[in-house]
Specification:
alpha/beta; Pectate Lyase C-like; 9 helices; 350 residues; GTP-binding; 4-stranded antiparallel sheet; Alpha-Beta Plaits; 2 domains
């Protein structure tokens, strides 16, 4: 007794004209567009300006190698980027979901955003960085860091596609795997450094079509002071809870406070549990516990004389209908600030 379907297949085969081959089956993965590695690589270039426009990389891996005196711009998100053996190049990288790895490069100036950043066997690099984890240098010298500041219309969506938060940026918290006693292999660029003086905008007609800006006020990533010495003994922590306008409210608050002369020290976007809220919010925790289930919180640390009063005043005036936590301690090393960022760093593995 045979299977009905096997009989039907046999009948179909017998009815097929003699000499005509059976068509191979088509699967969905056979119909995918073939990826050419050459489309995701710049190799062996000299004295050129090259790049990729938004949508042209779309999350693929990218390789830059053996380039000299080149200006390279990747205005899209990618999976990982490796830069090997490049000299005297300007490099811009849109959001990278994984790692950016520089090896054996020298005299390069860069602006980039990534999950992980690593430099090995390099010298004399200037990097305007947004990095979700602690940047690492190894066997490298004269590496200088600044905070990423860049804008073009597609950039915010590219951060989302790469799974990166614009508020998780540890650009200045550098770990040196190979420190030398009495020497510092890395440093921070001057706070007044103009990014366009280091990483100029592209000059080719194709790349100029991207509407770019390096103004700090327009930067997709908030420009923070990071590990630089604080100007004041007074700091204030503001925590915004998840909602439809959380990112817009955080940007508005930053603009207002920076406009009044206060400094944005650092930012974080993390999920909080009830025990975390108890440590950070203390006696006010019961007011905020129900809000934690809505999603991650955004925390902003501001510094400057009068920061606490300034934060409270602006929150009450502009965001009166929005629930926010504003620390009341004026100590720059207050329990509120330290408790939050210690917990956030542990959660993020920093």
């Amino acid at each position: 007794m045979g299977c009905f379907f096997s009989k039907r297949r046999k009948a179909e085969k017998e009815s097929q004209p003699e000499g005509e081959e059976e068509r191979p089956k088509q699967y969905s993965w056979d119909q995918r567009e073939k990826v050419d590695p050459k489309d995701y690589m710049f190799s062996g270039l000299k004295d050129e300006t090259v790049g990729r426009l938004p949508g042209k990389v779309a999350g693929q891996q990218f390789l830059i190698q053996d380039c000299e005196n080149c200006n390279i711009y990747i205005f899209d998100h990618s999976a990982t980027v490796t830069i090997d053996d490049c000299t005297n190049c300007v490099i811009f990288l849109g959001p990278v979901k994984g790692s950016v790895f520089f090896r054996n490069c020298r005299d390069c100036k860069c602006a980039l955003a990534c999950q992980q950043f690593r430099v090995r066997d390099c010298r004399k690099l200037e990097v305007f960085l947004c990095c979700a984890t602690q940047p690492i240098i190894e066997s490298s010298t004269n590496i200088k860091f600044g905070c990423f500041q860049w804008y073009y219309p597609e950039l915010a969506f590219q951060f989302k596609d790469a799974g990166l938060s614009i508020f998780n940026n540890t650009w200045s918290n550098i770990h040196d795997f190979t420190p030398v006693s009495g020497e510092l292999n890395w440093s921070l660029l001057p706070e007044d450094a103009v990014i366009q003086d280091h990483v100029p905008l592209p000059t080719t007609e194709e790349l100029k079509a991207v509407r770019l800006s390096t103004e700090a006020s327009r930067s997709i990533v908030p420009v923070s002071r990071g590990q630089r010495q604080k100007n004041s003994d007074e700091s204030c922590l503001v925590v915004l809870f998840a909602g439809d306008y959380t990112i817009a409210n955080a940007r508005k608050l930053i603009d207002e406070l920076v406009g009044k002369g206060f400094f944005l020290v650092q930012t974080k976007e993390v999920s909080m549990k009830a025990e975390d809220a108890q440590r950070v919010f203390r006696e006010k925790a019961p007011d905020f516990l129900p809000l934690l289930n809505k999603g991650p919180v955004i925390a902003l640390e501001f510094n400057g004389d009068g920061a606490v009063e300034g934060c409270q005043l602006i929150v009450n005036e502009i965001f009166s209908g929005t629930k926010m936590f504003v620390s009341e301690s004026k100590d720059a090393a207050s329990g509120d600030v330290d408790s939050f960022y210690n917990f956030a760093d542990i959660q993020m593995g920093i």
